[in-house]
Amino acid sequence: MSTSEKREPTPPPPPLPRLANCLGGDVVLRFLLLATSIVAVVVMATSMQTQVVLAGGIIPFPEYASVKFTDSPAFIYFIVGLSVAGFYAIITILASSCLVFRRFIPANVFLSLAALDAIILGVVASATGTAGGVAYIGWQGNYYIGWGPVCYIYGKFCRYIAASLSMALIASVILVILIILNTSSLYLRAPKF
């Protein structure tokens, strides 16, 4: 080929499939993550109940007994874990909203989001499992070691805990969907050989 001949410029890469930029859905899911995290934290933080119970030894006497989320370290961990998830949702909503209007988004953004989503999923799942274990003992008791169920006494408190755990499970599912969305965006951007 001589220098006088001109090379044809290489054609631009084909446009990405529509699914490769799912940032609109990403932002919506992150808003749902924020909402479920806030609801779970607020419901858990407001779970408190006072009941009259019989106390004493030989001669029982009525006494007021209160139960609240601060009585269990597992419930405190639950609040902290879901608060972290809510804060993370706020940060990633802002980041994803800025990326929606960009024409080209580097693949490392999707990789970073998927990795961070997996870390937050671990935090939310462990907090939900820990609080769920304590709630189960409160609901069913453990007769082998002498712990009776308490939900028949503190029904309102247990319903609040159950609602909060349900919201946390929904937040976990949302995080799994976000991980799938970001990894599929990465997959669709990979060169096909």
- Shape designation: elongated
Report strand order across the widest sheet.
Answer: 1-2
Strand content: 5-15%
Count of DSSP-assigned helices: 4
Q: Sketch the topology as an H/E string, one letter per element.
A: HEEHHH
Please estimate the helix content: 55-70%
Using DSSP, what is the number of strands?
2
Average pLDDT = 84
Distance between the termini: 28 Å
Radius of gyration: 25 Å
Query: Spans with pLDDT under 50 lasting ≥5 residues?
Result: none
Which structural class do the helices and strands define? mainly alpha
Taking the sheet with the most strands, its summary is:
2 strands, antiparallel
Folded structure, characterized:
This protein is mainly alpha-helical and 193 residues long. Helices cover 62% and strands 8% of the residues. The model has no long low-confidence stretch (mean pLDDT 84).
